[in-house]
């Protein structure tokens, strides 16, 4: 197996709150992340497979870039995550974002010789999350 | 002169809109930046002066860090910039943010042998602004 | 499983020497690393688990940051590693540092749904070490 | 197991083309990558093993650096990859480069307590490839 | 004055040679840079001026991005610099590239309240050049 | 004028103390920087001048690299700064280091068409100092 990765960036706002909790409970649980704030997120999508003998590519990274742009970046960049359809009923923690992105991308990147391996999201350079599917 | 710099980070949300324009005019003028979104901002505050003979410092960068934290980071990190007092009647473009931060910091960092030289803000790694006072 | 990471930085000095070797043997074995020198180390602590349904977190990264700060950063930042209790009888190579930090953190980060997955240390941007336990 | 990594950089030119295809087919398949262009590549070579009790090293990273420099960097830095012996009959995609480098390094880094674990190549900061052997 | 910067990236190949010198003289003068090789270049274009009162912008960085893309990136990305029209009779050292880009951009970014201030090019992260006009 | 920069890295240990003060006074003045610790320093040396018509270089950056390596890196890398001859009677704050390096480099990089413009030192990614001569 070879693992190839495409990295993209988007800027978005969010706040963390559980709709079933009171304002006081949410502030207690999420602290300053309960405030409306935002990030420059970095998204790394990794696909694994075997190189195609004709091209020497596992997958053309321009093709992977186009899928990520169409399915993810175009919908979350310069947006308020809590009001986007893909996060309806989902608290936009980085963990949940990785799982939502995985579900969206998994079928789209599947080809004869390659499949989605992982989704990694950097919320800041100090905080990041990796998901490889399976939950 | 020696120029010393302290770099800090904060995560905030904002949207760009001129209160005197209509919603359509703001969308036309600011495009996707008119949407509620956010960034991990990097702030570089540069002080210039001569090294103190006793310490060999122009200024203790821990002291500069404390000023920046108290005056800026503590007020903008994990916040919605448009609703913060320092941006009342100010569109929070990176240019205006640099000018507002300059006004706040200028007196605070003035010492016998040192003074504020510049405020630099990275909105993203691709977009940044430098202000040296004087407007 | 989801893997969440918190990255912290510390600045420390060290020198590499095996107490059972002569000065000449240590210089031969460790070269310039046998001299007293130092680094800005970056430490990445990764915890894996399942997101809590109430918070959407595997673990609050602020909680993880507090543990790392209390157990590691507070003890090694701006210190001479060879004279710190945790490196008594341990040559402070990056490999050994990762193993020592793992032992310190392993129990502390264990919760109902999460556990320590790896400790990664960058000695410089060109030299880094990853440890996942088990030795 | 402990995983230790050495990162090196080289600047090279290449173009992607399959010798069995026509000029039109290559342009269709590879797009702008069919043009003669170049990159600052970053190469991360990871070795895994157990620390030597005498030195506390899995492997002296200076020794690993010397192998990488001799076997790889000295042959590809400031060169046109398509004309280098190691890429004879190989399209120099990042995937193929990782596999070629693996074959070259695998025996060289093998020692009593350590072996090659992975080769990672960044073609740009947005596009990178990881190979762990086995194809 | 406020200084705003847009950073873009391009990947290109080049070789350094003076057409008036022999092959031996060029190899002596330029060393390994006389070989065909390539880089991921980073280009930072800085414009200075006063913020527009309506928008709070010195210049919309999306507008600056479009100019840079049209005038520079679209012409040099994934290309062999020595064969591009803008480098006809110009050795593509980083110094000369900065001067050529300055001439191309200077008029295009001139507006009522803003003008080109500097062009900065990173050939690698260790080698970079800044030009502010005037030669 | 064109400004060209070469960036180098070194790892060193130091502690801040004024020999004329007591241990208590030094601890009070320098805080944790009074402890023996260390850093991965980044040094950026900028030379300004006009490009040579034959080479298109202000100065061959390989030549500048060799000077920096010989005069600075070879003397400070993997060393304890307080015991190096160039810091005899100088507290190794980043400010003082920049001034000492300037004095060492200024004559060495002077050529017919180029001269030293600035010395910049990053002690950490958050703390850095710039010196342009004149004190």
Fold-level CATH name of chain A: Tetrahydropterin Synthase, Chain A
What is the radius of gyration of chain A computed over CA atoms, rounded to a whole number of angstroms? 16 Å
Q: Which strands sit side by side, in order, in the main sheet of chain A?
A: 3-1-2-4-5
Q: CATH superfamily of chain A, called what?
A: 6-pyruvoyl tetrahydropterin synthase/QueD
Structural class of chain A: alpha+beta
Spatial gap, N to C terminus of chain A: 23 Å
Write down the overall mean pLDDT of chain A.
Answer: 97
Sheet-strand content of chain A, in percent, reads: 25-35%
Largest interface: A-C, 25 and 18 residues
CATH class of chain A: Alpha Beta
Low-confidence stretches of chain A: none
User: What is the succession of H and E elements of chain A?
Assistant: EHEHEHEE
Oligomer: homohexamer
Structural domain count of chain A: 1
DSSP strand count of chain A: 5
Share of residues in helices of chain A: 25-40%
What can be said about the biggest beta sheet of chain A? 5 strands, mixed
- Label the CATH architecture of chain A: 2-Layer Sandwich
Taken from the alpha-carbon principal axes, the silhouette of chain A is: elongated
Number of helices of chain A: 3
Lay out the secondary structure.
Six copies of one chain form a homohexamer.
Chain A: E1 2-14, H1 23-30, E2 37-49, H2 61-76, E3 79-80, H3 94-108, E4 114-122, E5 127-131
Parallel strand pairs in A: 1-3
Antiparallel strand pairs in A: 1-2, 2-4, 4-5
Helix pairs in contact in A: 2-3
């Amino acid at each position: 197996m070879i693992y190839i990765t495409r990295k993209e960036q988007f800027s978005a706002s969010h706040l963390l709150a559980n709709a079933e909790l009171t304002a006081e409970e949410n502030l207690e649980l999420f602290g300053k992340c309960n405030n409306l704030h935002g990030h420059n997120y970095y998204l790394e999508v990794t696909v694994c497979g075997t190189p195609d003998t004709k091209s020497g590519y596992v997958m053309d990274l321009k093709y992977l870039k186009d899928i990520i742009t169409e399915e993810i970046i175009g919908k979350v960049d310069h947006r308020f995550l809590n009001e986007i359809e893909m996060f309806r009923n989902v608290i936009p923690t980085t963990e949940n974002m990785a799982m939502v992105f995985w579900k969206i991308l998994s079928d789209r990147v599947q080809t004869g010789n390659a499949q989605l391996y992982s989704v990694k999201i950097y919320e800041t350079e100090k905080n990041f999350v990796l998901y490889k599917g399976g939950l």
